[in-house]
Amino acid sequence: xxxxxxxxxxxxxxxxNPTFSQSIDKSKLSKKEGFxxxxxxxxxGKIYLEIDKLDQEFxxxxxxxxxxxxxxxxxxxxxxxxxxxxxxxxxxxxxLLVHKNYDFRAYSDNPAEVKxxxxxxxxxxxxxxxxxxxxxxxxxxxxxxxxxxDAYMVAETLTRSKQGSYKPEPSRSAMHYPMTKNFPxxxxxxxxxxxxxxxxxxxxxxxxxxxxxxxxxxxxxxxELPDDGYQPREFDPRAGYFQINYMDFTxxxxxxxxxxxxxxxxxxxxxxxxxxxxxxxxIVYYLxxxxxxxxxxxxxxxxxWWAEAFEAAGFKNAYRVELxxxxxxxxxxxxxxxxxxHRSTRGWxxxxxxxxxxxxxILKGHVSLGSLRVRQDYLIAQGLLQPFEDGKPKNPKMLEMxxxxxxxxxxxxxxxxxxxxxxxxxxxTNRASVMDYPYxxxxxxxxxxxxxxxxxDNKIGExxxxxxxxxxxxxxxxxxxxxLLKKLLEDTYAAGHTFISDTDSRHPSGSHPTSHxxxxxxxxxxxxxxxxxxxxxxxxxxxxNAIEENQPEALMEEVLVPLFLMHRxxxxxxxxxxxxxxxxxxxxxxxxxxQSRLEASKQNGALDALLxxxxxxxxxxxDQIIDRLPPRPMGYSRNRETFPSRNGLNFDPLAPGENxxxxxxxxxxEAGRANRLHQQKLFDSSLPSFTxxxxxxxxQVFGHNxxxxxxxxxxxxxxxxxxxxxxxxxxxxxxxxxxxAISRNKLREIAYLYWNKDSKTKTxxxxxxxxxxxxxxxxxxLADKINNFLNQKEEFSIPAELAIPDGAPIGTTDLxxxxxx
Length: 821
Prior knowledge:
The protein is α+β, with helices and mostly antiparallel strands. Among the domains are: 26-223, no CATH class; 243-374, no CATH class; 670-793, no CATH class. Strands 1, 2, 3, 4, 5, 6, 8, 9, 10, 11, 12, 13 and 14 form a 13-stranded antiparallel sheet that branches. A hairpin with a 5-residue loop joins β21 (350-355) and β22 (361-370). The longest helix is centred in the last third of the chain and has 27 residues, at 765-791. Residues 395-703 form the EcxA zinc-binding domain.
């Protein structure tokens, strides 16, 4: 009986007491001292951390030293993940790795006030480690499982991009000891992570040898936080910088609670009193040694352009780019790096950074440049120069233009990693910033000869110098920082510069007249017309002279695509002038202009230019190209860089023009733009209305009947596409009721007024009967389509109301101040 009671008592103790891990004999392990000392057992695939500093903050960064290689999936070699402030806390027999919440803060001498804010918002425990040994206040924990997790969330990314359902497979994963290192200020641990599953997407199949098993490498970096010697600089929306932001609950009532500071490197003068001084520590970037020539030299040259801007800010020898040492680890947080990244398709380059979330201080700049981007510029030049006539060798101007783009790209992406955002309104002011997206500035003389010598700028712009001064200039004696920054911004805008960034420039409903992507010129519509003239002349001469000897003739299409669509981004820029608004990020009391609606002449000029792109002769592929483009040969299937086709395996001569038509109508009749066009007329009768824009478009598009020709067929295609886009607009929940009503009425006019429209186009007698029959059939087709839409039974649900800004305390309306549990 006593034995039974004792057994039950022991079992009870076992069930309620926490278990302790087996003690680890450190003498049998390999020790690596550093920021966080660790021990490894390579025979057993283990790693142990020795934690001697509890409740002390440090940075935790995840990254991808070896990626997947698909731009569409977005998991590239060298990609940085999240930057988090964490600390180890002891709880019972565990150490918890806690992600601290710095989005909500309290800076107060009252500890109770600080605690009240800290306890009001959640923290995140990232991992719990059982303590194996404790000696002299040092806790040894087995961190193997922590490092073997899918910390970069690759499985989630593959699922989100519809590539399949994956999960980590421990039996095919392992520690990567060659890249597991320790340094005084950072600890770097790398693991080989394999994810297994059922591949369903084409992207993962195209880049993985066995797509049911995807293997990458993931890096975990523990980094010492910088000292408190860095001085944050206030964010201003006019200055062109990225920022950190947080809520400060100790802000005085009446002051903004949200605090914002720019992102920038720490750069200090050795002599703060000197107008120009050497830095205490320069900003140095290291270029990937895997970058080949002549790309390597181009990237070094373009990257070093920024030295001029730092000189303008009062620093000498404060910035440089050089080739990385042979033994340098590019993922090491101590180094700013420029990586040359390979993917299966061309894609974005980007500049990212590791920042101190507390202050915005940039600790590591990390640039990733896609290796295939340069080939697109080469292809653009190839289509323009058409250099291979009579077996001539490659024209060196193609490579020269591609390398010029790489210099600009290097400077652009580094600009992001020193804190700068995109500056898309720079092209009209003499290409004032490398932070714009430039389309090559192509010149052509009267004889049709192409000049690419000025395709890209060869330096940073004037805006870039002003921006670096705002972020890095030292506050002189006798001035406050606020006084310095205010004066710098006023001088910047007095010099004629405008800063407009991503949201305003990328949105399909954008209305700014000069802030565009991939554009040139002071006037978007004038540049569009100039580009169309060059395009027409080069299409007239395009043929086998665009490809090298011994290439399949079908490969002309890859060169044709960027030439035929060379004005695609200028169409987007021109569309923003319709219902356009000239504005800045104006601050009360500054010297920037007050916003104003774009004058009627510019809006009407933009409409004329857009309608010109819809002329059949602008949408037609020249006969000599159609006659020489065969179906794709074996081994050269149709791909994302070729036009789609409704003609089976054959080239579709209508598809290129249809791409342009869809693009133009999508921008012209975007719901927000249509709403603005209607409303602007209510405030200024001189401006074009949505009805007027629509009437002019319909008049041109439906002004001709089918005449039995290729261009006549193109015109029918344009009529059909206009009908489709009007139906979409009339059914768009973001369109106002008035715009919907106008759209539906115009559809009725198309269905009924143009049904019996007499032909005004003279046609060859042999074609008359056929052309008339096709016209009648097509008119009936459009009328049926429109009537089917107009007569369909509508849902009698009232559209969702616009959300009113919160009045009562934010949250569910069911709660009140007398809520009881």
